[in-house]
Amino acid sequence: MESIQTLVLIPESTRKAKGGGPSAPPLPVLEDALPRDARRRLEVLRNQVRRTAPEALGNPAELLPAFRRFRGNMYRAIPDEAWDQRVPGVEVVMVSGLYGLLASRDPVIAYEASMAEPLERLGKLNRWWRDHGLPGLLRTYLESTHPASVLDILSLEYREAVDGYANGLRGPKVRTIDFRGLGRGSQPRRGKLVAKVLRGEPLVEEKGEG
Hints:
By secondary structure, the protein is of the alpha/beta class. The chain has one domain. 35% of the residues lie in helices and 16% in strands. It has a 5-stranded mixed sheet. Strands 2-5 form a two-stranded antiparallel ribbon. The chain is globular, with a radius of gyration of 16 Å. The model has no long low-confidence stretch (mean pLDDT 92).
C-alpha cells in the first residue's frame, strides 16, 4: 500500500450506478490498513447493518470500486480522468451508511442506505454508527496510515457519524470545510475540490473553512 500524503474525507452518495462484476475491482484496501481488532469490529458493525436491512442490499456478485459506484452530484463533478490519473499519495475515504468507511477503490455493491436516513431497529444511521465507535475506527485508520494532512469536506449528517475522530488524533493536520450557506449547491463544489486534490493542484481557502 502506497504512502498517503493527502487524505480526503467525503460522504457516500444515495444515487448509485447499477451493475458490476466479481472481478472488476481490486481487493479491499481500507480494511488492510486497520489493525486486526479494528478490522474485526468494522466487519461486525457492517454485518449488523446488513442483517437489519437485507432488502436494501444489491446483488453481492455485482461489485464496483466505490468511486465508480457513487453517482450523486458531487461524484459527477469529479471527471473520470481525475480518478484514473490521480497523483501518487492521494486517497479518498467515503463515510457510508452500509460500510461505515470505504477507501475509494474498495469493492462496493449497490445498496439503499444512507447516514441521513433511519433503519428500522437501528434508528438514524449516522447516530448509530457514531454511538457504535465509527469515530474511533476512523481515528485508528488515520493513525495507521499516517497521512500528512486530512481534508474533511463531509456534509453535516456524515460529519455527525464520525464526530470526535480528530480528538486526540496523533499526526495529521485536519483541515475542515463545510460550505456553509450553499445547501445542495455544495455538492458540485465538493466534487471540484476532490478533483483538484486528485490532480495535485494547490487549494485556496474556501468559504466555510473551519
